[in-house]
Amino acid sequence: MIADVLRHFRPHPLLRGGHAQTLAGAYLPGPRFAYAARQHVVSLPDGDQIVLHDDLPQGWQPGGRAALLIHGLGGCHLSPYMQRIAAKLQRRGVRSFRMDLRGCGAGITLARLPYHSGRSEDAAAALETIAVLCPGSPVALVGFSLGGNIALKLLGELTDQPCGHLDRAVAVCPPADLTAAIEHISRPRNRLYERHFLRRLIGQVRHRRNLLPDLPGTDWPQTPRRLWEFDDVYTAPVSGFGRADEYYRRASSLPLRQGIRRPALVIASRDDPLVPVNSLEPLADCPAAQLEIVDSGGHLGFVGRRQGADRRWLDWRIVEWVADEGVSGPAPGGSGNVTVGPIAVTVT
Fold this sequence. Notes:
- By secondary structure, the chain is an alpha/beta fold.
- It has helices spanning 18-27, 80-91, 120-133, 146-158, 178-185, 191-211, 227-238, 244-251, 313-323, and strands at residues 2-3, 38-43, 49-55, 66-70, 95-100, 139-144, 166-172, 264-269, 289-294, 303-307, 310-312, 344-347.
- The protein has a ten-stranded mixed sheet, with helices on both faces.
- Helix 2 links the parallel strand 4 (66-70) and strand 5.
């Protein structure tokens, strides 16, 4: 179903249009969230490791609700949206785990293979780890942009199978059709964003190569000038997809949408400069998905008129969905039938 939420989100009058919303979402300052998380290192079946940042609310009891947050392209646990959501969930009594994707944040030297939009197996490993750390706690999966595609892909692959204690999910501006998204961001009016992400990605790879000199796939004949070229010379071949087009086909979550069984909230905007909204509309055919499309929210923006504590409508919509006991999903249980390999948890 597509929910009409226009009455709930009203863009700030000075932030009309997708570009203004996107930039405000990224750069509008907000309160600082002092880092006090406990780190958990999760070993993956292929030998790489990722890091979870555990923000434990005061008074949280075993069996209380938890959430796994997955960042987007070029981000990490310190991305502003990750910090804001973790802080607001903490105030609602929800224990959150901010996940650094492979080679990101605190795990920059812990993985040889790169992260990408299809790493649903890493999200599954994180959820199984949280089930060990929080036995009996229902868990919501929250993904932003690239992380949103990972979340939807995992839900589609799971169908009715349990994975840790996962019972619901939120995906914000997910590039569910990666081919459509790469074509959209490559349009002239959106090239500013493509160049921004390309610089960050190339910078990340070069920084990691300085720390790990034998990092695979970093000897490029020339520096990529488009995101498609970066994926074609680095992400796809190093990750086992061969070429970029095959990576986009196999890592997109949209073809798996009919497998989604758990309640999933998908938030999108018609003026998103990174993700074309028409590529998300087929999700409306999925009975378990609630697709909320606003006219003007940009990409991870949704900065509106003041409602309560601040103007971050997106934050409160996510917190509402995660903490709402009226959202029905599978009952929490033990580890399920998803094979994620042996999981080792190291507390540092």
